[in-house]
Amino acid sequence: LSVYHRFYWLMNLNTTVVFLGISYIQHSGAWVLVLLIPFMSISSALLLIHLAFFSLLTCSRQGCSLLTTFRVFMSALKTSCLQYGRLGRDTTSWLDHAKERNGGCYSELCVEDIRFFFTLLLLFISQLLYRICIMQIPSGYYLQTMNSNLNLDGFLLPIAVMSAISILPLLILAPFMEYFSTCLYPSKRDGPFLWACIIAGNLSAAFSVMVAGFFEIHRKHFPSVEQLLLGKVLTVSSMPCFYLVLQYVLLGVAETLVNPAFSIISYRFVPSTIRGTFVNFLTLFNGFGCFTGALLVELVYLISEGNWFPNTLNKGNLESFFFFLASLTLLNVLGFWSVSQRYCNLNHFNAQNISGSNLEETLLLHEKSLKFYGSIQELFSSIDLWETAL
Question: Which residues cross the membrane (predicted)?
Fold first, then answer.
């Protein structure tokens, strides 16, 4: 767990540097850097990958890839449809039709690991609303920030600074989380602790969106002022943008709690044969959550006729969208809590479901031991013959 805390700490430190660089570009207007910085970054990355190419080559573990998972699913589905959904004597679910002993093309271990993977799909689906809340930073939260007073004693604060503020909680809390999990309670880093972190992170995201709704109501009570932004004079609220810091901080706390927990789940409790598939699907659903958020905004805009996500913020009710999203997230937390009870003791769940994955490795180890034992036996037999000859 400490490894993932350090990984996310370093990754967000890099992100902070990126957003501070964007803030400098917004403030100075040096738009040449918009092309120069990405070009230099990609060139440096390609150079480092080329230098470390041979160090990155490792022997990959044979297992069920994403393509194999899809093929097993389609094979079992096709066989089930051909047999009109009737299960055989040796089958307990439709996925068993893909096994070799039932006429399929895949081994018992591969199908059982994929069955375990499908039991985790609810975890992916439950994080869609959480990802929608996180994606409010470059959408709804930025609209609020643009329509608030960015003037700080004559200095026009770049909007990208607010994204850097949302990363600060992770940079501050990650070392404390590592100390808490490794030094204070090292024996409590099992399933219940990880689920508690995920639920707390989802609650923090829901409260962030709710706080954004209350500040949106509060922002409209401030008198309007004119503000120069991106070469245009905009009429915005005189409420200082620092009032919005709390909602950014709560989203940063949510990321601190959720991301390392899901990473450790994928490492400790997922079979090694499908671990890569699990990580791929986790990334896929994170991206799908972003597209779902964009679709939700479009639906809300069309249904409310532009009132809940207005083109001009002062002429609509963006707070209604925030409260609606917060309500959906709270309901999602309740659903996730009820689902997580079946995975509460992940060590026992892991032992029951993926012990078969380690069976092949154990058999290979025994095979090597038997070969070693046979070679030792031959050695001692040779010694005995040599002594007899003497």
Answer: 7-25, 31-57, 116-137, 157-181, 193-215, 235-258, 278-301, 321-339
